[in-house]
Fold each of these.
Amino acid sequence: MITEQKLPESALLIFLDIYSLKNKNNLDNPYKEFFTLVESAGLEVIGSIMGKQNLPSTSAFINSGKILEIKSLVKELKPDLVIINHALSASQARNLEKIFKVRVIDKTELILDIFAARASSHIGKLQVELAQLNHLSTRLIRGWTHLERQKGGIGLRGPGETQLETDRRLIGQRIKTLKSKLNKAYKQRQINTYARKKGRSKIVSLVGYTNAGKTSLFNLLTNSDQHAADQLFATLDSVTRKNHDPKLGSILFSDTVGFISDLPTELIASFKATLDELLSADLLLHVIDIADEDYKEKEYEVNKILKSIGIKEIPILRVMNKCDMKEIENPSLNNASDICWISVKDQTGIVELRRSIDGILSGGIYEGWISIESRLGKVRSDLYNMGCIKEEKSSSNGTILAFVNIGQDQLNRLLDNEGVSIESNDKIELN
């Protein structure tokens, strides 16, 4: 039996540069991001129209002259839908659909659709559905030409209730149910986070603009195989894994959803609890695509969202990824304490990144000699497994002298063992 393959929907893109909506942090190439966003949704772009306006039209967002141009192209190309790069009000979307005689969606609906297609975990699906319903509750514009019609219905509505009122009530009930389910899921996550903290595990969360390479770095640090793709919002569900490098000790890395400029408020609200998990992190790795021409603006957008959820005291390490694709203008920045230059692709700078993570989490790195009594064989063995011992000597009384590279907090716990102490270099040279 031959199954018919479903073809992707065709889309006509409308990219408008609205001067009144500009700010100093606008991307240098916003069309590229918009186009990539559409491609990530699996749509076939069959045409595009660009234009400039001082102000958006109140009734249809687009000025009348540009509407005529778009209407003519819609008639010629016959797209399945028209996509505009701004957020539309319910009335504006409704008016444009009447004019073009085709479905019209804005940037918000496009992102919501991508999220709906990519969410895989139970919590992720609930968050996306909540965002969709919050968005839908303000419009209810399509498919209801009979909204004024009154009709009773068993188990659905009371007498005299309109279809519109019914839909709003049912959506409101579903939103309430989703919020209740999400609150239970978040409480369970908080319990899990507390357990990790109690178990002395450090938590490092990867944040950044979408498609900056967070998941690829996450896979490298944890030896995982999470789906990573060169597309926007490849990762939606937060994933936590233990690091596979024993030198770093008990550290848990968490991969998070990527950010984007003008992230829909519905998504921010729905994913707020997930973003709030960042508040329990001991360190944030802000992954930045240094090869992106708009990386400074995108870095600003991420910092703005982090600030909005209350990230203040948590240390942030800026990880400049894809440095293999761009010449670093100022190599001296490699020496800065809050920045690392890496390439996940060829694993450049990963050793330095691990060292920086260890240094921040452990309060610094101790590099020097320690003495370990011969009876503490397990302590010595653990240090070898962690890769901390660089050189070793034996003293005349059988004590092991080891030159170690170890985090300060790990060293402090090590010194809690009776029979372990720091040795001076002068004393070692005498031996």
Amino acid sequence: MPQPPSDDDALLDRLQRKTFEYFLKEVNPLNGLVADKTRDGWPASTAATGLALAAYPVGVERGLMTRDAAVTITLTTLRFFRDSVQGTSPDATGYKGFYYHFLDMITGQRAWRCELSTVDTGFLLAGALTAAAYFERDTQDEHQIRTLADELYRRADWRWAQHGEATLTHGYKPRTGFLKHRWKGYDEALLLYVLALGSPTYPLADESYSAWLSTYVWKNIYGYEFVYAGPLFIHQLSHIWIDFRGIQDVYMRDQGLDYFENSRRATYVQREYAIRNPREFALYSKDCWGMTASDGPGPATLKVAGVERKFFDYVARGAPHGPDDGTIAPWAVVGSLPFAPEIVLPAVRYFTDQVKLEQPDSYGFKATFNPTFPVASDHDNGWVSPWNFGLNQGPIVLMIENQRTGLIWRLMRQCPYIVQGLRRAGFRGGWL
């Protein structure tokens, strides 16, 4: 007889279901663009739209939307990006197969004079390839999904995005040119390089990946040795799509571990930092932790209980070197579920039962909270973000699913471009 669901299963099911609603309600059905956050008049995010494309198969498998509805919105999204204006005009949607970070929800044009973003485009393309792997039926619509995803992926000119050097740039602006920043140090560019190396049209040279690996920083923190990055999202976003268990590039072979284990250690470092709580922020503990790029209560400098503290707004918070202003992001903890469920699940329960961050209406957890920040509120635990963010919602839905069934990992193991990119990056072993 089938066993009844455990309390943990019921909790994850509810959280996944409520979080998924973001992609049903915060999407423009006419173009498939997904809002960056739940603030009136806010633009779409290319990355959030890519996460939505990956999430729709989860929605189908979990009975949260029909397959026909998922096919319709997926086709709408892919057609929009295929047909949107590519060029150097400041109000275009993209250029050279890449897309702007933020897009107007209605027109799809560039918003806020933002950059043409390599990594946000990477999330979009990864989402498109997920859709291509999932919608495999021999129907006209599902065949078109596969064709459009392939077309979008092939269009990205990764060599152009290098701007004459070995590594990839962060992006480009039409009036000022390439951004001065390049992908340096271990970060979410892991996915980006795999996509770029696997390209059948504009692939990077092997030397590009080697150049990026050379910027890694290896650290020993609290007895955990790992490739360092402070914010949790860095240790999660590439793992949404790629199962790094048992596969290693040359760097990780030399260290004797894989990126999955690296993320597990980074997760434990975050928890240990909260336990030690060197800056003495409110509520930090073994069950209350998790810092990442997130919304916050600042900018402000306030004296709290006799201590002058600086608070930030949206910034990449990290452990143990900061920045840290007492802001905790529950979504980032959930994003580490596959790496360390034994410490993540108690934290999720704490956020649910003790801090009561679940929203009764929709969208799962509140994005962030800061119990140290003094604020007049009905909430018992200080400042709570009034917004939800698409970039937060996606990892919750997708990493819960990877923990439960491995769905996204299994789909992407079937993607020849991902396999080729991993092999060209020097990955060996395991499922490869």
Amino acid sequence: MKRAELHFETLQLHVGQEQPDPATDARAVPIYQTTSYVFRNSQHAADRFGLRDAGNIYGRLTNSTQGVFEERVAVLEGGVAGLAVASGAAAITYALQNILQAGDHVVAADNLYGGSYNLITHTLATQGITHTIVRVNDLDALEAVIRPNTKAVFVETFGNPNSDVTNIEGVSEVAHRHGIPVIVDNTFATPFLFRPIEHGADVVVHSATKFIGGHGTSLGGVIVGSGRFDWKAYPDKFPTLAKPDPSYHGAVFADVAGAAAFVTRIRAVILRDTGATISPFNAFILLQGLETLSLRVERHVENALKVVNFLNNHPKVAKVNHPSLPTHPDHALYRQYFPNGAASIFTFEIKDGQEQAWKFIDALEIFSLLANVADVKSLVIHPYTTTHSQLSPEELEAQHITPSTVRLSIGTEHIDDLLADLAQALEKI
């Protein structure tokens, strides 16, 4: 059967290894724990390094276990090529650095994960890259901040930590009108629930550490290129892809790699030079997680919606920030993009501030207090004093994070046990 005829649940199990491993006949993807590969002869070696022959060169660039993982995520997202790296942070950094240089400008949403916000507003700023943070769903505001040197718009499908929904179609329409690609962090939605490329996005990134892995065991990130953005239409704007690369024999990646140019350049240049390589073992573990992604996400969402309803009706809860609620400003967009539900990571506001929020968190017995999300186990954290604590009071306010904010990541436990745990913790405040 052709891939195009297969459903997501089948693709997540088979893409990249439709046939048993040719070397061993293994059904499972083997762990190719190696750093280097033998070339058949000198010409073969030269062709590999010259990008004239696709194949393995060195473990920092490619690995066969990694390759299956990359292909599988790319197909699930509807992209043409994928690249796995050591972490989600590396994936975001590389995706931006692939097209941003000193003197360039990036527009980013105002509801980003704290680490991504710091990357754009502080780390990249020291490299001569300017930024504007904007409420991107205000399309007029978005268009107003675009400059001649704007090279990317960066958003998340769901904002972190409040799970507000981004209008990917609207944002993409504005960005494309100005010849600018849209990069979307789809970690919280997963390709099972939403595929940004189908709605106009040009590049998708993931922290595979989260839902893809699903068990909080292995770091990893993935970059997927849509293959649809015409880099050569704007050679002066995107010289890294549309003009000769002096570090790679003058290769023009848009010519050499075609639709796969975006991820090919990251692999051939940025990963070559900076080396945030995913290990074969982690790629294997993340593949194991990917095989059950749809099953887990269905349960995550089912549980989350029941928790939202419970909290929304609790007298000690001031507000629940979840787009499934009719009172949420993104409710219509949520219904449009997620007819089967979504957003198992969200926040709510405890009455009476930080002291009560901490008391509630410390009283939980099933929920684990830690800096991760999207685990099969339910998790909790206080963003104001942890994940977003590096932000200034003004930045925290802009991201709608208060001392009363509690972030939950709803796992796959039995819902009755989760509700009982939340109830007993709320009784203690």
